[in-house]
Amino acid sequence: MPQEEQPVATRRVVVREPNGLHMRPAETVARTAMRFDATITLMQGDHRVDAKSIFDLITLAAEEGSELDLRAEGPDAEAAAETLATLFENKFETPPSPGGEPPAK
């Protein structure tokens, strides 16, 4: 029996953080990606990594201005792609949590 196709969402994101995609933003991206029921990858050229892995993200060595292709596949694909694209746009700053309190560090 053929496997049902999963929803796919893609975005082009730009690293806007002056220090690039270093350990702290990589942790933020991975932690955010893990919230979604989707396989999420980031690509720079031919280098494709798992967005849920801090180590994989660091291997991109993405500097400020780097353009990355984000691809999410699965039930949460659109929400994952939109949330992660916004995270990149906001220089990896996470929005306040629902109670108005900043997220725990």
A few lines on this structure:
Helix content is 28%, strand content 23%.
Report on the structure:
By secondary structure, the chain is α+β, with helices and mostly antiparallel strands. Helix content is 28%, strand content 23%. It contains 3 helices and 4 strands, in the order βαββαβα. It has helices spanning 23-33, 54-58, 77-89, and strands at 8-14, 39-44, 47-50, 67-73. The chain has a 4-stranded antiparallel sheet, covered by helices on one side. The longest helix has 13 residues, at 77-89. It is globular. The termini are far apart. The model is unreliable at 97-105 (pLDDT under 50).
Topology:
Elements: E1 8-14, H1 23-33, E2 39-44, E3 47-50, H2 54-58, E4 67-73, H3 77-89
Antiparallel strand pairs: 1-4, 2-3, 2-4
